[in-house]
Amino acid sequence: HLVRREDYLAPAYRIRSVDLCFDLEPAKTLVSSRLQIERDPQAAPQPLRLHGEGLTLLRVLANGESVSFRHEDGSLVIDHPPEDASFTLEIRNSCCPEKNTELSGLYTSASGFFTQCEAEGFRRITYFLDRPDVMAVYTVTLRADKAKYPVLLSNGNLVEQGELSGGRHYAKWHDPFPKPSYLFALVAADLVAREQRIRTRNGQEHLLQVFVRRGDLDKTEHAMNSLIASIVWDETRFKLPLDLERFMIVAVEDFNMGAMENKGLNIFNTKFVLASPATATDVDFFGIESVVAHEYFHNWTGNRVTCRDWFQLSLKEGLTVFRDQEFSMDMSGGASARAVRRIEDVRQLRASQFPEDAGPMAHPVRPDSYVAIDNFYTATVYEKGAEVVRMMHTLVGREGFANGMTLYFQRHDGQAVTCDDFAQAIADANPGSALAVRLDTFKRWYAQAGTPTVTARGHYDPETGRYTLTLQQRCAPSPGQPVKQPFVIPVAMGLLSHDGTPLQLQLEGEDASAASAERVLVLEEAEQSWTFVNLGAVPVPSLLRGFSAPVILDDGLSDAERLVLLAHDTDAFNRWEAGQRLALSRLCAAASGQAPAHLDDAFIEAMRAVLRHPTLDASFKELALQLPSEGYVAEQLAVVDPQRIHAVRESMRAQLAQHLHADWMWAWEHHQVREGYQPTVAQAGRRALANLALAMLCLHAQRSADPVWPGRAYQRFKDAGNMTERLGALSALVESHAELAEPALARFHELFQGDALVLDKWFALQARAPEHEGRVFARVKALLKHPDFSLRNPNRARSLLFSLTMFNPAAFHRPDAAGYVFWADRVMEIDAMNPQLAARLARVMDRWRKLAEPYREAARAAIQRVAAKPDLSNDVREIVMRALADD
Ligand code: ARG
Ligand code: ZN
């Protein structure tokens, strides 16, 4: 059953206020709901249809009297509601939180009751108009056993609490802001809180709380600091204040996603709250900072202004990802640290969104249809959506964008709106801007799926000093979209001389005084040319600086030109990119059998120069010295042989380890952090580079039978004062020293037995180990039966299964098809308890059509086997049907 964007109808009934009462029991929770409903005077008389899913209905009263109703595909239909313009509806129903393994709606986890309502979980709690354009004021009373669930929370402000008979207690909460049901939340659990009172600019006092299980309190400092930094940042950068007296974050072990922005009561996966130097890596610390910020920023972009319907999801997600990316960049410090963040974001986009956009699940940033909305919390809606916002930012400038945001809130505060409304506000605040003059064309980014390819070719005339740059764009068809119109593509660019000097850019017909070292060209037709004049030297073009648009760039540059950029580009993103391109062309040539897997001296020397560079940051070096991932290489090839790509990349990695051996030793020695642990960009960069150096030294040791470095790695593993270094050493051993890896893994397990998030790392590390004679795959199968393993907990399931299937192609894609058989079995097994999680796992086969034989046929058979299962969830069915669509 397909939901279509074009079928949107404004609601005929609106719910203005809700009074909810919960009697919480794991096996049977009673919900009483009193709804104040208004009829749209314009709408024709019609039945009232309330969403409901898996509920037991006990009673319905309209204006205090019984009313006839019926059930129709899950909905509760009242054919003749009272004819008054406004009436009350009272509903009593029950649900069963302890059987809720989907983790959508009201469910139990170790410490108590939790909710997850986005997108359509509220209907699994009670009957309601469960759509984001119906906004109501909530008053919520919770009743529960006091000893088991001492903490009772819901959105807004606590208005009353007290004792009840039978060891129970209650709390009553009121949220003054009208909100859609997907932002409702409650928590009833055995938790403790870190608290902090702050005073914001306008002089208002706020209480900030981070709730966790007893014993985890010492791991909440970073989350609290991140929250305070987010509040300060949003006030400063966008003039958006905290509008609540109380802002709560609650951590829960069982959670399908990262976190959820429920008004005033954010609920988080523990992974994005809990951190201590001993148990969390630098990457974890940054993840917490960015997710805390993301959810906090939703309070304005998502909650104060929300989505009219779920097709508009990127309205809040793309914008909020853009905001959290900017926050993380601002928190990182200087220009080069910002560039490192940008590189990481782009790497992520290319690793997840580009393949999505080229595969069977390709959809526009604003999708046109869906079967299961939960399948559309995608890299396209989030990360590409953020790129679309970033392009607007580029086209109107930083200040223009801030003005656009101000206008957006002036116009739409308190409303449920569309992506069009957002783009219109940004354009209207900047009349005559590069965005405003082509807004309709620009908005094709919302409507057309697929990643455009931009081809750039330059011609320099030494006689006249003129350089003509021609840009062409094209975009392959996507499902349902055979032909694409040209996109508006901002191309930030500069020109360098061959000795690396930035050249002044003066366009033909422009005054010399208009010249600058960088500019943004706006490509909006299939082909356009620009001519630069008065160039004194043959230029090397540096295009798409900072990755100014989410496109694939074919710049046709030679190795020599890329080496110039790698050595001299003033744009750190393009400097990194030049090195990646040099590596990528070598990887692809070898993986497609056109060249041996051999790294030439020029490449090795360029990498050595980066590693030894006197001024580049360690974090930049670490990114620049990594070869593109196997997945990224696969995306470049028409036919993919995962085993071959793995072999080629491993061989090149070994060459880097060998030829730069002395340099890696230098890097290891010179990047030790001797100060106390701080999760700063500067320290993290040093640790990352030292870890990479250690991995390379151990890799080389493996090939040269040298026992020294593995011995040092083991020592480091034992002595490390923080998880980043400990895990770095352990992973170096797991990668290249099987004998020492075994005792190290055993010791690690023993040390961290009680810590779920660290055990996740333990499982993940083993599933991500380089495959050798099928041992990794066999180990994953054995780990499934480990007493600490469970498919019920999403983090644990992901630690093993996603690590194998998404990040270890050589272990997963086996010529004997056993990997795919294993995949299909797990998808079906998980689907029976948690369809959202199963659908995510199902997506790892998106790109099966690109596989070489025998993988391709085996993959098809496995997907078909899943598709043939009779009682498949809508979520998984949508994924496998799309995967098989052209069969
Ligand atoms: N809005 C949440 C966030 O972006 C994600 C919620 C995802 N929910 C879902 N059912 N897929 O942080
Ligand atoms: Zn979000």
TrEMBL record:
Q: Which UniProt keywords apply?
A: Aminopeptidase, Hydrolase, Metal-binding, Metalloprotease, Protease, Zinc
Q: Please indicate if the UniProt record lists Transmembrane helix as a keyword.
A: no
Q: Which cofactor names does the annotation list?
A: Zn(2+)
UniProt-listed GO biological process terms? proteolysis
The protein's annotated catalytic reaction(s) are: Release of an N-terminal amino acid, Xaa-|-Yaa- from a peptide, amide or arylamide. Xaa is preferably Ala, but may be most amino acids including Pro (slow action). When a terminal hydrophobic residue is followed by a prolyl residue, the two may be released as an intact Xaa-Pro dipeptide
The Enzyme Commission number assigned here is: 3.4.11.2
What sections of the sequence does the record tag as coiled-coil? none
Protein family (similarity comment):
Belongs to the peptidase M1 family.
Q: What is this protein called?
A: Aminopeptidase N
Give the organism, scientific name.
Azohydromonas caseinilytica
